[in-house]
Fold:
Amino acid sequence: MAAVLVVLALLVAGCAEAKRDTAARGTTPSGAPPPRIPSAPDLPGFAADVGFASDGSGFALLGSCGRSVCRHHVAVLDKGAGAWRLGRSPVPDTTDGSGVTAGLIVLGPGRALITDGKWPPPERTWFTDNGGRSWRQGSTGPSGSTPVVPEGGALVEDCVRVDQERNGCARSRLLAALPDTGEFRVLATPPPLEGEVRPAGETADKVLFAAGRAPDSGRPALAVSEDRGRSWRISRPKGLERHGWSLQVTGTGKVLYAVQRGQLPDEDDVKNGLLTLHRSTDGGHTWERVWKHRKGVEPRSTLGTPVAAADGSLTVHGEAGAWRSTDGGRSFRPASDARGPAGSVTLTPLGHLWGSSFNSWSWRISADGVHWRPFELGDGT
Structure:
């Protein structure tokens, strides 16, 4: 049985200055009811990847793995439907022991792109614009350029040179996945970053972030676009660790958080280390470092994508449990009595999506990051 670990994380944006930050946080009020997603425990296999569009429709990529074969399934939730249906899966069975490596990108209602997760690149892609009733094989690389990331489109990383060990990427760039065709386009104006350039988040008001290294210093840095990729400015959170693996941004309105992941010094038992946490109240022009790793002090890790919540708290789901802050990420307390991997959260156009670290069928969704509604996908086989 090949196990799939969905490595994601929950960060819930907090603030010390409640009145000012409440006005700046965005349009989703605290107390917004969670979307209603039907359960489908009879779907085959385990849910490896799930995504939703803003109208409530969605896709789920599932896998059923036996002794030497993994079969892929695609489930589709149509807008307003009371049940999921099985669509046609374009992904071939895997027989090499790699398990389910494919990934899913939802590009709008009825539209999705599947990548087969091959390493090293390039990798195959398949696109549907009719809710998974049919798929067409897409390009493995970009064809042409685009001045902008269209609404509904997505930024994706394109590795152009693997490292010497062929285990990772030494240099990459960003591509736009087009929502109408699933094709890749090179950004006509790329972010002014070097090295491995990755997508680093998109806020509720459509501001795009990229992460890489500043060309003048080689230190970790962010690039920010407020016009869908037509132009970029460099943003340099102070106090970043040079050896960090990645940067990711979350938030709504003017309140943003940047999370730096990396290997923690002298703590080899942590795999997804939380090095630093930075907070901005001016849209990413300036940052305050509010958290730096201290040996033995939780949260030491973060699983997945940071997510801002409407009530001003900040919760980190990590390898040793969930941790909550009410002072803008400066201090944390346990968010529950449970210990061990606390699941992970990603942000979709429909809301915050939580997946369990242990039960592949167990999911929850929230519109405000505070109130959650559970649902189940797959029979777990």
Summary: Confidence is low (pLDDT under 50) at residues 1-27. The helical segments are 18-24.
